[in-house]
Structures are given as C-alpha cells and as structure tokens.
Fold this sequence. Notes:
CATH topology: Beta-galactosidase, Chain A, domain 5
Largest sheet: 8 strands, antiparallel
CATH architecture: Distorted Sandwich
Helix content: 10-25%
Number of helices: 2
CATH class: Mainly Beta
Low-confidence stretches: 10-31
Number of domains: 1
Mean pLDDT: 90
Amino acid sequence: MTSTEKRRTEAVRMAGLLLAALAASATVSAATMEVRNDPTTGQYLICDRDKPVLRYNYQTVEPGEVLAKVHADNLKYARPRSDYIHPLYGLDGEELTLDWAVDHPHHRGIYWAWPEVDYQGQRGDLHALQRVFARPTGQCVTQDGSDHAQISAENLWRWEDQEPIVRELAVIRAWRSTPTGRFIDLEFQFTAIKEEVPIARRDTSHYGGLNIRLASVKNQEIRFHTDPPEASPRRAWAELSGIFSGETATGLAVFQTPSNPEYPGEWIQYPEINWFQPTFPSAGTRYVLKPGRPLTLKFRLWIHPGKADEIQLADAWTAWVKSSESASFETINLKK
C-alpha cells in the first residue's frame, strides 16, 4: 500500500470514528435526564427526553381557588404545603397522583409525613398540616445525567410554622424509562434538632409514613406482598394497577428495603380514595427522632405498563435491594 493509500485509509477510519462518536453523542443527548427549575414558582420538574416525569414541589404551594370548593368543615386542612411530589406522570404522560382533593384537601400526591408529631408535650399533625409543617431551606442540589436525574433537598419541620424541630433531607432519583417502565428512588433522612420528637401513625395503627394519594383509576386492583419472617431474603412490595386515562392500564409498584428500621412496614389501603402505602413505624409504637441520630428510610417506585406478575415484581425488588444497600447520604452535598 502506497503512502497516499495509507493516508486515504487513515482518513476514512478517522471519519468513521468521528461519525460514530457523533452518533453516540446524539444518542446520549437524546436520552438525557434533566431537572428543570421554574424560576416563577421555584418548583422542580424532572424530564426524560423532554417528557415530564414528576414535579417536586419544594416551595410552598397556596390553596388559591381550591378554598371555594372545600366544605367549611375541611377548610382547616386546606393549608399551604411544601415538600411533596405532584404530579407523578405515567409512561404516556398521564397524571397518576392527585393534589388538593376536595374531600381531603391536605392530601398532596406523594408525601412523607406523620399524623402524630410530638414536641414538648404537645401534638402536631404533619400529615394534615396542623401545627407542624415541612418548609424549604433553599438548600437544593440537582443533577442531570444520561440514565437518571436527581434532586437532593433540605427542609425543616417547623413547629407552628416557626421553630425548627427536625432537619429533613430528601433525595428523589428518577431513572430513564425502558420498555419495562421507569424506576424512581426515594430516600429520606430525619434528624431532631434540639429535643426528641416522637412520631407515629394515626392512633399508632393506621396511616403514616410514605403517603400515596392517586388520581381516579378504573379497574383498580391493589395487591400486597410480604414474605414470612423466616424467608431469606424477605421481600416486601405492593402494586396498584388500573386505567388512569385512555384505555391502557398502568401499574405503580412500591418496594421497601430491609435496611429500613422495623422492616417490613405494614401495608395500608383505602381503595375508595385510590390510596395505598407502606407505613412506619410499627403499629402500637412511636419512633423517637433524636438529635445526632438520623432516621433513614428508602423506597422505590416502579411505573410500568399493565399489571406486573409475581416473578417480575420479585426480580425488580431483588435487583433494587442489591444496588441500594451501597447508597449513602454521604453523597448529598448540602450545607448543614
């Protein structure tokens, strides 16, 4: 081969490499997960290739026109709220969650709150927005990526909307959709600031923890699965499936991880309001948040087409638990 032919061959090879690199770059760009901050509202929207995945309402949301629709007996629950997910979108862009329900105006999509929060001998209700409220500190870090996007936010639980009693870190990590659906990881850390703060479910036996209020759904089916105590591994998952819009069914599964204290949390459902959840703490108990000793809870949501079978749910749970055990809040770059 002559030197001219060698140069031509090398030029062709380099051109091929360049085209391949450009194609790979275009593929990564097309698959980018992105967090967008609305400068007007201060809320955060996670998008997958420009399709909305979820909105994290970090800043306070006012009731506005909802007040005119709420019965007088429920007006005290139609309070400004922060620190929750709504809407959570399905794979076809449908809204899966419900905010400002007229029957329960304090319900707010997906939120992490307890109806019994005790402080200095008094009781507040973070769930129903009475006496204690989660408020943003302004410390919020976002990350974009080719396979996932993440929001890491700090909030303070404020007694009477003033005195900070608990520091909360919330991480929302949404993964790029695939033919099997989309995963969303939720990680929370709660630490009392000065004094102990006991938390509990309603009457210590009903709802409380990771609360999930969904939009109206046709052909709703709720399934729970918790392995017996002797099982190894002991899996715990639940799924609500049905038709949220159009004619296509969607499933929303929730996974618990064994690293959560008092695992597995009891499952609770209220089908009449499209509600299901893993609860915390155990029935009949109160969990005491203490200064310097954070409570960490982790969950995974799986949005998928139709209704998943037992094998699919078990495999998805196993894969997540294996990967999540190495995750740590040490990676959250927020100022204390």
